[in-house]
Design brief:
Layout: E1 16-18, E2 21-23, E3 30-32, H1 33-42, E4 59-61, E5 65-66, E6 73-74, E7 79-80, E8 84-85, E9 92-96, E10 100-104, E11 109-111
Antiparallel strand pairs: 1-2, 2-3, 4-7, 4-11, 5-6, 8-9, 9-10
């Protein structure tokens, strides 16, 4: 028996395949295989060069970034270790030496 993806609406794991559609018996959501692949691809966080990022990676900031609400600046070339990927406005939660805990967008970092 092949493994079907969980429902993107309710995350129910009891989906089934009917012709060209996947169907969720819990919420009656229907989606195609192409939609499932597109959603899976969109969930991957990539750096400024297109490399996929994962929890625990080390990244380098590629340009000077002003810290909102203070006069501090994260200098380009700053190495940030042990990142955590999150959903929301910023893709990365991290602890920057000398500044503290903050969120970064993946478009301003590259994988080290």
């Amino acid at each position: 028996m092949s493994e079907y993806p969980p429902c993107p609406e309710c995350a129910d794991e009891y989906t089934y395949h009917d012709g060209t559609l996947f169907i969720c018996p819990s919420c009656a959501h229907e989606w195609t295989e192409a939609e499932a692949k597109a959603a899976e691809e969109a969930a991957i966080v990539r750096d400024s060069n297109g490399n996929p990022l994962a929890d625990g990676d080390t990244v380098v900031v590629i340009k000077d970034l002003k810290v909102k609400g203070s006069s501090l600046v994260v200098k380009g070339g700053t190495k940030v270790k042990n990142i955590r990927l999150v959903d929301g406005d910023h893709d990365i939660d991290c602890n920057i030496p000398g500044i503290g805990s903050m969120g970064l967008k993946s478009e301003f970092v590259k994988k080290a």
